[in-house]
Amino acid sequence: MEKLLELGYDMSRLWENYWPNYLIGIRNTLIVAVVATIIGCIIGLVCGILNTIPYTKRDSLGKRFVLRLIRVIVRIYVEVFRGTPMILQAVFIYYGMPYFIDGFTAFQGYSGIWFASLLVVSINTGSYMAESVRGGIISVDPGQTEGAQAIGMTHVQTMTNVILPQAVRNIVPQIGNNFIINIKDTSVMFVIGFIEFFATHQNIVGVNYLYFPSATIEMIGYLCMTLLASFILRKIEKKMDGSDSYELAQADVLTMSAGTYSNPDRGTPFDERNPEAQKSMLREELRRQAERDAAAWEPAMPRGCFPWRGKSDAGTGRWLSAFRSC
After folding, report:
1. 3-state secondary structure of 65
2. What are residue 323's DSSP bridge partners?
3. What's the rounded Cα separation, in Å, for the pair 222 and 180?
4. Strand 319-324 relative to strand 306-312: parallel, antiparallel, unpaired?
5. How far apart are CA 121 and CA 175, in angstroms?
6. Staple partner for 274: which of 249, 260, 270, 304, CB 3.0–4.6 Å?
7. pTM score, two decimals?
8. Rounded CA gap, 187 and 29, in Å?
9. CB of 70 within 8 A of CB of 46?
């Protein structure tokens, strides 16, 4: 118990003296994680789409050669950056580019360190997202692609209007997973001098030698960031899923024959825009009301008389009644 109290005291002292440094580290970590995840998703989307462009033996030789070359390049990129640690990728890019290119100045100064950090994390994220996008595209039923082609859609139209809207929903959990990984993996950028959350911890420990209390603050900080990210991502997924309850729309014959389902909270396009559906609903309601009125009249009729129902009045559903004596 005394050790826990001592740990809490040391952590409170560190936070009191260095909280601005910790917050700056958290800010830098989140900026790199968010921006690199967005750029990585764009890279992965492009690579995933290029890697799934179909071709057949009937296509020209040039088209087949180009598509095969693109797939080879994408495969090499994915395997290299998925199969090597990010810390070594940072070293090779930050120190290797100036080594092989004379006069290379893109990584000079602190702004150059920022640029290198974003570049490394983005490329690494893109290699993982490329496979996630490819898997999301493949997971869509091939029958939908065949149906789109049957109505005359090109490959681009099929991909943008049919496949990608469904594939994106399938890969949203993986996007969130990569974002959480990036929050933690930015800690390796200290090797090129980038001041993020973990580098802040190292700088503070070098001054006061309170390694474990500072590491505990780091652990709590990373845990808070990842839990908040998980909460936000689950909200986004739930929003994309829509309502949990769907029922068959039975108001219109055309809707039922088409197998269209409606969300009770949102209605259907037929309910809002199709006047024929509204007229049909009105006629059905008037018919039911007439039947209820006729049922209410029958017990009150004189003995020996009975109702006679005639034809509907101009198709409005209102029924005429007459009485005949015995």
Report:
1. helix
2. 307
3. 10
4. antiparallel
5. 14
6. 270
7. 0.69
8. 8
9. no
